[in-house]
Amino acid sequence: MASFSSSKSQSADPQSFTTMDKDLDSIGSHCQYAYCHQLDFLPFRCESCKGTYCLDHSTESGHECPQAGAWAAARRKQLSSTSSATNNTKPNLLTSQQCSHPVCKTYINTLTNVGVACQTCNRQYCLKHRLREEHDCSKLIPLGARPAQGTTLAAQSEKAKAALGRFRTWGKEKSGAAVSIMPKPKPSTAASRLVVLNTLKKTAKGDAKIAPEKRIYLHVEAEAQTTKSKFPKGDFFYNVEWSVGRLLDDAARGLQVENLNNRGGGEEAKLRVFHVEGGRLLEFGEKVGGAVGNGNTVVLLRGVGPAVPDLIEI
Fold this sequence. Notes:
Number of helices: 6
Largest sheet: 5 strands, mixed
Strand order of the largest sheet: 10-9-13-11-12
Structural class: alpha+beta
Distance between the termini: 130 Å
Order of helices and strands: HEEEEHEEEEHHEEHEEHE
Oligomer: single chain
């Protein structure tokens, strides 16, 4: 009877041990080091050789990793490629901001140049112009500030009167010049206009990529009282599909006039385009082909405020 019970217990023990051993294998993992094979419930994975090891052999030197240093080299390569791709991105007006100083073109808030905010005028400057004395902070109107209403209305009235006087002067001068150039017997004939336009086409400059059928030829001048330019006037051609704002940028580059329109600020620093024949300021969003014609004259002025239609007729 005793022998029967002992044989029964012996036959039951191996079955229970086998079941328990399988359960333990499913929980942990054996160390893959050749001289260990220890069952570890929290094994470590080597990122270089992708093997699984216990705590004692978790390091590359501990399990004599056959690809020691592979993970570190791949990591350094990834970081260097990311940093080089970031550094190769050239800052521009779309991705960065320029210093608010009128004569400074330094891009700020980049990896190489930080931006400093002036708490008085609420503008961003580079390190060179960060001090109030360097950017004439006392002469600037803070962004977002609301000046006294009486002072604003008086300044706008005086500016409008001065602009109106300049526009009328330009209109009279250009009208007299047009009369003196045209032949007296038939000043408005198609032949005479064609001769003047052909002469303009021979001297005009512009982007050679513009198709000939899309070109519009204009006389461009810069007013001496409000702008400083290297060349006071010139003949240029533009694309009829361009906006007036793009024409202004290209004309400012052609006459080498300082253009601050894309840097923010008030109307006193912005350039505007005055159409002499139409007697009005052109809106930035207008199409060139619909606003002016071949042989017309446009003038660049600064600090005259937003466009006001038909100023000569007022």
